[in-house]
Amino acid sequence: MEFLSWTEHVLVSLLLAALVRLAVTEGWQGVLRAVLVVLRYVPGIGELINWIIHMMALQFAPQLTGGSASSKKDKKPPRVALPKKGLSCDDILQEMKKLQKEKDTDPHAGKMFAYVYTLQDDASKVQKEAVDMFMEQTGLGDHHDRFVREVFQSFIHTNVLNPFVFPALRRFEIETVSMVASFLHGDDQVVGSLTSGGTESILMAVKTYRDRARKLCPQITQPEMVAPITIHPAFEKAASYFCVKMVHVPVGPDFRADVTAMEQAITGNTILLCASAPQYPHGVVDPISDISAMALRRKLPLHVDACFGGFMLPWIEKLGYPVPTFDFRNPGVTSMSADIHKYGYSVKGASVILYKSTDYWRYQLFSYSGWPGGLFGSCSMAGSRPGGNIAAAWAVMKALGEDGYMKTAKDVMETTEFMINSIRNIPGLCILGEPHMTAFAIGSRGINILALADEMESKGWRMERIQDPNGLHCSVMPSHTKVRQKFVEDLRTAAEYVKIHKKASEEGASMAYGLAGKVPDKSLVDDFIKELYMEFYTKC
Ligand SMILES: Cc1ncc(COP(=O)(O)O)c(C=O)c1O
């Protein structure tokens, strides 16, 4: 072997020794496994193996879904847009029941051996009544709530853990993702899935970018993400769950992300930028076009959290209100989250996570082929996923259609404007920032805003306190239209009372906020919050 250099001799000998050792300890199977693992890292061969796996999946999937093998490479189901005009509830229910009957195995028929655990009739009846009693009222009226309940009840015992077991639900999920992607201006490449809510969508996004960075930038061992301080705590939760460091940057006096500060916070470890449309506390949309341009320049992915605004901003933009371009129209936006259980008016437990393409989404997926219980795959945090939420989300979107969402957005936006304008005229109060949609924060001009919250609560209102600066957050909903006049009257009276009596905050939540504001070490406040939770969950 004269053609090998001295170092190559050593390397080849070590490799042969390792292979012989593997053959002795694990047999030829072990050697084959090791060779395949190594081959996947060889340029060209790795791609070829991935292509073969992809083609096998293409051929195999139709056998699981009951379709025929596709001859066309990468054939995608056609994009489904939100209907321009809402469909009739009866037609939707009929279509759903037909699909369910034709495609899904009846969970009560005793023919399944996993996924669904049902008792016989009596318990189901109690459960049905409990759902009727405690299911939320969306504020869109009795008719809407009854319809959502009926859909939810029809699919209550279905489970989308395995997307091939309930084909009707698989279709509802794919179409729901497609409808959301289309009104958020995603192109045909945009993909995603449903999750249980905004937090799960955000958790998935952070996990996705962490795993992508592990693959594409293995030199990064301590990944970081950069976000304005107003970003939802779900990102902080994701940071702590997935060991990604959160780098918060301050916002400007308008409460919008400071793009320069974000760029300055980027380091060699940054794997993700995040922004909100809008952020929860003050209802303002971050300057997403600028952040998107910066993300492109710095070659970093950008997640836009539209959990709150994804189902509201598109309609108010169409109504002519000024809305910053917040969605996939910005070329640097690589993923978005939008909650159907907020302004989508479906039941709790429904959000969409969308990615610009499968190049990102693939890192969200989890698979494990070594379990004696079977080949396991999952697309989000949850294992079992309640089908009722997915069915309800699809049905609500079809029933409302674009015209239904526009009409509601118009009403809620008018109520918001009425409230904001009235509050600006109440001495001692102001609006923090310039809200872009149907949420705002009331700030103080010289009165104790936490005492104001207490005073309002004594009149029966349930107030949401925010901090830095102290304020009161209001998300406006359809149910507020009928009480908007009373709300501003009570606010005016309460503000006068607090001002004259120089009231201090002295009740439960306000007192906690008041104290928290004075504690310099926030970790003490964090411990206090955990203690409170332990109290709540250990006492009846
Ligand atoms: C902007 C924003 N993102 C994420 C979330 C989290 O959503 P969820 O409570 O559904 O987990 C919220 C909730 O209010 C939100 O306002």
Structure, described:
There is one protein chain. Strand 8 and strand 9 form a beta hairpin. A seven-stranded mixed β-sheet has the order 1-7-6-5-4-2-3, with helices on both faces. Strands 10-11-13-12 form a four-stranded antiparallel β-sheet. Strands 8-9 form a two-stranded antiparallel ribbon. It has three domains: 2-75, no CATH class; 89-402, Type I PLP-dependent aspartate aminotransferase-like (Major domain) (Aspartate Aminotransferase, domain 2, 3-Layer(aba) Sandwich); 406-538, Alpha-Beta Complex (Aspartate Aminotransferase, domain 1), CATH 3.90.1150. By secondary structure, it is an alpha/beta fold. The radius of gyration is 27 Å and the shape is globular. The protein is built from 17 helices and 13 strands. The chain has helices spanning 6-39, 45-65, 89-103, 121-134, 142-154, 167-183, 198-216, 233-242, 259-264, 288-297, 313-318, 358-361, 387-424, 449-458, 484-500, 508-518, 522-538; strands at 191-195, 224-228, 245-249, 270-276, 302-305, 333-339, 351-355, 366-368, 376-378, 429-431, 439-444, 464-466, 471-475.
